[in-house]
Amino acid sequence: MTQQTVAAPRSGGDPSAPVLEVTDLHVTFPNDRGPDVKAVRGIGYAVRRGEVLGIVGESGSGKSVSSLAVMGLLPESAETTGSVRLYGEEILGLGDRELSKIRGKTVSMVFQDPLSALTPVYTIGDQIAEAVRIHTDASKERAAARAVELLDLVGIPYAAQRAKAFPHEFSGGMRQRAMIAMAIANDPDLIICDEPTTALDVTIQAQVLEVLKTAQRETGAAIVMITHDMGVVAGFADRVMVMYAGRAVEVGQVDDIYYRPRMPYTMGLLGSIPRLDEGAEGPGHTALVPIEGTPPSLSALQPGCPFAPRCPLAIDACRAEEPAAEPVGRTGHLSACIRSGEIEEHGWSPQDVYPLPAIPEAPAAHVPREQRETVLQVEGLIKHHPLMKGAVFKRRIGSVYAVDGIDLDIREGETLGLVGESGCGKTTTLMEILELSRPQRGKVVVLGKDTATMTQRDRTSLRRDLQVVFQDPMAALDPRFTVADILSEPLRTHGYPAGAVHDRVRELLELVGLEPGHAARYPQDFSGGQRQRIGIARALALQPRLIVLDEPVSALDVSIQAGVINLLDELRGRLSLSYLFVAHDLSVVRHIADRVAVMYLGRIAEIGTVDAVYGAPSHPYTQALLSAIPLPDPHKERERRRIILRGDLPSPADPPSGCRFRTRCQKFLILNEEEQKECVQREPQILPLRGPAEDHGAACHYAERVEVI
Questions:
Q1: Helix (H) and strand (E) counts for the chain?
Q2: Share of the chain above pLDDT 90, in %
Q3: CATH code linked to domain 364-465+544-698
Q4: Cα–Cα nearest to 161, from 147, 172, 173, 175
Q5: Domain 18-237 has CATH 3.40.50.1460
């Protein structure tokens, strides 16, 4: 293997020269069971100091593999060819010792999962100090001081104390900020960010993106941002590269990609995103753009354009030869589509290219809400978990206030979205409803039946009308059962006629858009989106009236997510279903829900119609949540004002006195002493808000409607 020293200039030289230049990069993984997997197929890009390149695409498109190849972090079995030049010097093929001199100094990386990237047996401060000492002659004391400076720079409170903490003692957002601190410890010229915000709540995501912007200002580094979130790229990147099946299918300035896409795949990605800034018009509103099918296997690519089997514009010529990325429109805009000229000539939008399913209206949509039957009513629900101490003689030392007195209701044909950060009590609320047992305190009434007075027979009968769709379909579906067995199990359990089970299974598969012939397959034979459709089919088997959906699309790519959301919307209209839809993605909730309840530390902070809450949120927490969600619109993203929350969610075992949100509240800081005293001493209750929306309330002493989108 070639051994050479790369002398990357830290300053001076041509400022317009690329920091990193990748040319014709190929990465192939050997496959013992068949043809080799061609994970990356000839991509190329260049990035200069101070520039941000966004790389986007579905899972399996080769985004992360290409970044690992640049860093020299692929396994030895991977075959990598092409060229990777750092300040003009070739680094592809260097040995690990030579690459170690570059990693962390000239080039650094922020990984997707900081808990896996950080060493669990060393403190955060020691790990950052180590990164400093490896590349400089700083003393141990100076490196430790530098670690504290970096933690303070990325917004870690009480940096000197937190530097002595271990990774497991940090929250997810704090760990990611510590990773960024480590990445900028030596003022690198290039930072590669591999899905740095994927597993984070939107408020923490906003903090991390702000930290990355601060890091770029401090170091002047170039950034390669790898993500599947088109909203993150819109407001952060200068240029965008869209990847599909291991290659770049469209490249251009961020405005060109978002406002003038010339590749059907890019158009599909943009059209499949639920827009926070575009409200739904109730039942019958416009569907999202679905990209049918799944990405091709990278070990069995067919001739022609890899996207042709999923492309509504595909013609015979598309299947004959794979198109090269050719210039279109403005300088630097490339598209790998032989019909890009027609797209430009006709000015086609994603909705013009992709056929949209019709979303039917439910009969209940024409009935005033107060006249509809209440399918779920929750009053004063409380669930406290005991906090125990001791190994042999356990004693209770406190309580975890998971759910601490909430009220909500759902009417026939209605969808209520339950949103909030991780740890706010959403899932606990769901479990309390689904158990159909006497709550710890409070009242749960499902379809007119109080769960506190139910017998076992009542619960069994009621489960026909109350079903659930879980977040992870692979964990929810038994891998030992075929799809036919999975769908027929609830039918047989509830006494469905044996002779009609087979026909009902076929009917369910057709209902959710799957082939009846797939009934003999196992869950592992399907894609993530198809598995979620199977989970929905199982929930529909007994013709329920209320379905609880626990983050049903959070684990799916945005293109697959759109199809599942359309399906749920369509089924609600056709079957007059009611949904309790739990999610952390407020854009999805705006698209599908009629009403929304915002939770914080076991309490509801704001509740009302979607248009009222999203159009003019009145609780400071809701305002911060909505402002933190990135929009897939570069112009709007550049002009928006972010509300960055301070710190992380307090412990539910020790919530703040009075208003639980006051420790992070942006409005609390500008109140006078008497008003702050009110927030500290008295817990606010949900009160109706005066204004055009009758169904809108907030638990804030000083609620005020503010437009944040």
A1: 26, 24
A2: 67
A3: 3.40.50.300
A4: 147
A5: no
